Amino acid sequence: MRQMTFALLVLAATTIGAFAHSKAEQTTPANEATVATVEAIEMRFDDPMRVTAITLTGPDGDVNIERETGMDAVTEFRALPPADLPDGAYTVDWRGLSSDGHPMQGTFGFTIAD
Amino acid sequence: MEGLAPIDGWAIAAIISKAAGYGAALLAMGGPLFVLVFPSSSADVRQLARKVAVVAAMIGLAVLALRFGIRAARISGMGLPGAVDPMMLGFVWDSPLGAAAIWRGAGELLVVALLIRGIVGLSAGLIGALLIAVSYTFVGHSLGDPRWLLASLLTLHLLAVAFWIGALFPLRHAVGRPDGARLLHQFGNIASFTVALLIAVGLIFAWLMTGSLLNLLSTAYGWTLLAKLGVVSGLMALAALNKWRFVPALASGVPAAVPHLRRSIQVEAVAVLLILLATATLTSITTPPVNL
């Protein structure tokens, strides 16, 4: 038992370093950023993600965005908002299907201010 | 808490239906395994094992369809209309769940063939059991590296679990019948090996997913896994109590052993239910630390 505990501890100590890598996606605009304008909404994934739904909600409610990326699984997703977004707080909500079949979802927010 | 996905009504529906799918699949796999391993058990006990497996297989097929709808609803972000949206259902079909559904569906149909008496039905059921087990290696965390090791571990784990779970109803039925004590004793002996195997491969799998003891305590995956292991430990204690106290008492004709064993097997079934729920939670809304 004591030997087993020791072996487990050694394994634990030696394997921690291998998992510093993060799967969390990066976005443009960055989460919680304040920006003057938004040219595009972008999300980057470590593994291909099929983004099945995305909504942008602003101070006046839902905003229509135009998907530049189709329904294929991608590591870089891009959608275009209308040119003249009014100032205020915006939230992006997305749903997707990861390559291993898990339904995924995420949200990030940004503020537009001059 | 790291690695916990947002939980909404659909996620909870997904967890419950997944657990139901696990239960149905394991019972469906367990029936043919029981008939294979205990050919000399009494005819009515084997008949019950067959019946449970066939009903479970049919429930499993229905749950599989339901899970497609729930997953489509989840990825669509539209709620109920998304569950029947052809495009969203198409995406789910194209995902690993689609491939898994073909194998699992075929396996569950083959288990229904257990209704055919004799070697033909049993062979179909056994092939079905294997297909169902393998279907689980097409989805989720066992797709990671090392792929073949994870897939083999999972298949073994599922067959061993199925052997146990599939035996619960027939064993409960056998308690208090003429050859019941012999069957329970035999099961206890075989289970000592299969349960050891199932725990060993489960722990190796968990280790490959978790990576370190620290991750057990710092992630949602780790805590859910600990909860599962907690119930598993309780189940083991109960199984040990059955094997070393109640079954010998039954064999030596102690009358109280009959109700004790029956109740104990019922409690085991409840524990199994909790384990399936914990497992479904683990594989639905938490991310293994190695993938964080």
Please provide a written account of the structure.
The complex is a heterodimer of chains A (114) and B (292). In chain A, strands 1, 2, 3, 4, 5, 6, 7 and 8 form an 8-stranded mixed sheet that branches. With 114 residues, chain A is mostly beta strands. Chain A contains 1 helix and 8 strands, in the order αββββββββ. The model of chain A is unreliable at 8-24 (pLDDT under 50). Chain A has one helix at 2-15; strands at 26-28, 33-35, 41-58, 61-63, 66-67, 73-80, 88-98, 103-112. Chain A starts with a helix and ends with a strand. Chain B is mostly helical. Helices cover 81% and strands 0% of the residues of chain B. Chain B contains 11 helices and no strands. Chain B has helices spanning 9-37, 43-76, 80-83, 86-94, 96-112, 118-135, 147-174, 180-210, 213-218, 220-251, 257-284. The termini of chain B are close together. The interface between A and B is medium-sized, with 27 and 34 residues.
Poorly predicted parts of chain B: none
Number of helices of chain B: 11
Strand content of chain A: over 45%
Rounded mean pLDDT of chain A is: 81
Question: SSE string of chain B, helix = H, strand = E?
Answer: HHHHHHHHHHH
In quaternary terms, these chains amount to heterodimer
Helix- and strand-based class of chain A? mainly beta
The major sheet of chain A is characterized as: 8 strands, mixed
Outline of chain B? globular
Using only C-alpha atoms, the radius of gyration of chain A works out to 19 Å
Number of strands of chain B: 0
Series of secondary-structure elements of chain A, N-terminal to C-terminal: HEEEEEEEE
Major sheet details of chain B:
none
Low-confidence stretches of chain A: 8-24
Total E-strand runs of chain A: 8
What is the share of helical residues of chain A?
Answer: 10-25%
Q: Note the total helix count of chain A.
A: 1
Outline of the structure:
The complex is a heterodimer of chains A (114) and B (292). Chain A is mainly beta and 114 residues long.
